[in-house]
Write a structure and sequence with these properties.
By secondary structure, the protein is an alpha/beta fold. The protein folds into 2 domains: 3-151, Alpha/beta knot; 166-245, Trp Operon Repressor, Chain A. Helices cover 29% and strands 17% of the residues. It has a 5-stranded parallel beta sheet with strand order 2-1-6-5-7, covered by helices on one side. Strands 3-4 form a two-stranded antiparallel ribbon. It has a two-stranded antiparallel ribbon with strand order 8-9. The protein is elongated.
């Protein structure tokens, strides 16, 4: 099964962009995934190819019309999940990326201007997705991020199947720090434990560093990780007194 990505955008020339180079680009040339773009303006009904209009109730900017965008979506809808890149969406997480990468692909809708007419989400099965708490000029950059995250997980793209197993977010923690040659640089040396050859010590150090960095840098992730860690198989929480030894 080939992962098929269809991007609906006002700027199809932005694709494949960075997805045409490095791992994603090689995988594209090897047909490990497929990319199609759809120009939303092609589904406008007037000679000016109008895709937006002023906000109901007044306000600055323009809003993408539900009727035009829906026609574009309906032209490609085939059962694949439809994701709309919008700052009003749910934050993209690695678990969702893995689900998408394991499926047939995705249809990605790129927002522009002030966003979409809300009736679009009421009328179609669309998953609003955000890549962070900031605003971009449009959804195209978010679409590139989402697709890159999925493509690197496709079979054969990263090489060894285990290449991504210990990366940030895969275990609910940030990844441990990495080092490489030279052993000393500007008076700073690689931690002794990583040069010891003792695999058990190395594994323990990496686990400890992942936990420490997550606790200090991403307390939100740490809180979720700790909450999950003390869950019993049935979902009940243990107190410190009855936690399994």
């Amino acid at each position: 099964m080939t992962f098929a990505a269809t991007v609906l955008t006002l700027y199809p020339e932005m694709f494949p962009g960075p997805l045409g180079v490095s791992l994603a680009g090689r995988a594209l040339s090897e047909a490990r995934w497929r990319l199609d773009t759809v120009q939303i303006r092609d589904f406008a009904a007037d000679r000016h190819r109008t895709v937006d209009d002023t906000p109901a109730g007044g306000g600055a900017g323009m809003v993408l019309r539900a009727d035009v965008v829906a026609r574009a979506l309906d032209s490609v809808a085939d059962g694949r999940p439809i994701l709309a890149m919008t700052p009003r969406g749910r934050p993209l997480a690695q678990a969702r990326v893995r689900e998408l990468a394991a499926g047939p692909g995705a249809i990605v809708l790129c927002g522009r201007f002030e966003g979409f007419d809300e009736r679009l989400f009421e009328a179609r099965a669309i998953e609003p997705v955000s890549i962070g708490d900031y605003v971009l000029s449009g959804g195209e950059m978010g679409a590139l991020v989402l697709l890159d995250a999925c493509i690197r997980l496709l079979p054969g793209v990263m090489g060894a199947p285990s290449s991504g197993d210990e990366e940030s977010f895969e275990s609910g923690l940030l990844e441990y720090p990495h080092y490489t040659r030279p052993a000393e640089w500007e008076g700073r040396t690689i931690p002794e434990v990583l040069r010891s050859g003792d695999h058990a010590r190395i594994a323990a150090w990496r686990k400890s560093m992942a936990e420490t960095d997550t606790r200090l840098r991403r307390p939100d992730l740490w809180e979720r990780h700790e909450g999950a860690r003390v869950q019993s198989p049935s979902g009940a929480r243990h107190t410190s007194e009855d936690e399994p030894k």
